[in-house]
Amino acid sequence: MSGYTVVNILGAILIITSAMVVLAKSPKNAAYLYAAQSGVVVAMFVTLAVTTGSGELYLWSVSAFFTKVVFVPLVMLYTIKKMGPMGAVPSSTLSPTKILFLIAIELFICFVVINPIDLPTAVAVKPALAISLAHFFIGLTCIVSSRNILKQVLGYCLMENGSHITLALLAPQAPELIEVGVATDAIFAVIILCVIVLRIHRVNGTLDANDLTNLKG
Questions:
Q1: What are phi and psi of 208, to 5 degrees?
Q2: Which residue, 113, 107, 85, is CA-closest to 26?
Q3: Exposure of 48 by Cβ count < 10 A (0-12 exposed, 13-18 middle, 19+ buried)?
Q4: CA distance 9 to 179
Q5: Using CA atoms, how far apart are residues 70 and 64, in angstroms rounded to an integer?
Q6: What's the rounded Cα separation, in Å, for the pair 192 and 37?
Q7: Using an 8 Å Cβ cutoff, are 19 and 68 in contact?
Q8: Confidence of residue 95 (pLDDT cuts 50, 70, 90)
Q9: pTM for the model
Q10: Plot region of 7 (φ>0 → left; ψ -120 to 50 → alpha; else → beta)
Q11: C-alpha closest to that of 64 among 178, 179, 143, 204
């Protein structure tokens, strides 16, 4: 089995974990599932590094492990702990069946879009590339469909994972500095969003996006 085949298989696992993040009923479970998904991202980076001989991707995998598998989930779990009991918040405005249907459509469209691409770096990993592109839309689906604003933050994280994988697939020799820039932006964005979520919960006593439609001046 070639390294590129393993990358495509890991891409399929990535879609499963992404769907589980979107469908998770609690932010805590979604944070753990995001950590698992990020572990798959790290495995993709390592496999690509071995297959392409890219020393940069080894550094990417180490950086991604500490930022995505460890740091971001810890920030999310710390935020959840700081808020204490949150009460019952409906997880989504859509049923699980509708969410899975949307993900399937997004994945199909991305496969259709990616198929004509004939770049040398993309030919062997077209399935994984389509999946990485689909992550942008899956993350957007998570943001739009989730009523819990903490899960909306994780939707942003899914979008970031997709862009990260796309970069690794198309430019495996890209300098480590680029990966550090992408990861740093994501980390600070998550921290800022979690601070905002804490503030919203403290002032309004809810994480339900449907209860945050009125502005008070």
A1: -80, 115
A2: 85
A3: buried
A4: 23
A5: 9
A6: 22
A7: no
A8: confident
A9: 0.86
A10: alpha
A11: 179
